[in-house]
Amino acid sequence: MRIAVLSPVSWRTPPRHYGPWESVVSLLTEELVRMGLDITLFASGDSLTSGKLAAVCPRPYSEDPLVDPKVAECLHISAVFERAAEFDLIHNNFDFLPLTYSGLVETPVVTTIHGFSSPAIMPVYRKYNGRCHYVAISEADRSPDLDYLATIHHGIDLAQFPFSGERGQYLLFFGRIHPDKGVYEAIQVARRVGIKLVIAGIVQDQHYFQTRVEPYLDGTTVEYVGSVGPRRRGGLLGQAIALLHLIGFDEPFGLSLVESMACGTPVIAFGRGSIPEIIRHGETGYIVADVDEAAEAVADVPAISRSACRTDVEQRFSHTRMARDYVAAYRKILGVETGDERQPDC
Fold it and tell me: How many domains does the chain divide into?
């Protein structure tokens, strides 16, 4: 089975720090190669893969200001479709733009929809609904306007997230610094319960950071540690009492929740979007309605078994499970009967 996997070129695959789509693509690609598939990864030139790397953009545009994003995207996407005849299937992880190339090739295209950034992009998805195959990353993120091949939850490499059975030392916010992600709400919860909050993530909205976050930073009660890469991520997550995910939008998936639970750290989150698919209320965390309930839930966190959090991730959110699900989807598209999952070659 010859698969072209199209990754974004905003960040390296895998990312050095931030880059959730690139992270998922890397984990999937590496596991597919291990399973014996012939994988060509289309990504930035500095990307790392045990498959074949195809790159026309030497550096990701979010890391190199000299790279024009639109030029990089156009050259990158066209590269895979110009080689479409070499592959049995193209797996698009680059949002809606590659769909506009799909009618020009005979190679089937499966697109993982990593969330809808805006209703304005829906006409593209609707136009190619009958031609391309769509995979949702959660049941909550399915659009009633589209047909789906499958829902496949993201998976993580548990080896990258060491389990900690010790009760944590602080509350944690881990994600983009943006109004949608609930950083200000996390600060209010921490102040109410009198427990230190550590904030980690890239600043995506500078005005929001300066007006709603920075005034509270004192290094003692609220601390901002910047963007945390793979080397520090596990320790930061594992030493937390709980992860606060008090979002202001419908979450398509939420990788940080799974990563936190893998380290044994429960999650307190607003129940929007996919959150009820990820958190088992009262078992791996608490789904709350507002800041008041979130503050109350902090006191209940010791009742959550940290080992139960880890076990749940092992059972439901491993990257090996994710890869097996995608192989099943590929086989369905190509009309190949499902056989031994360890031998996926067509």
Answer: 2
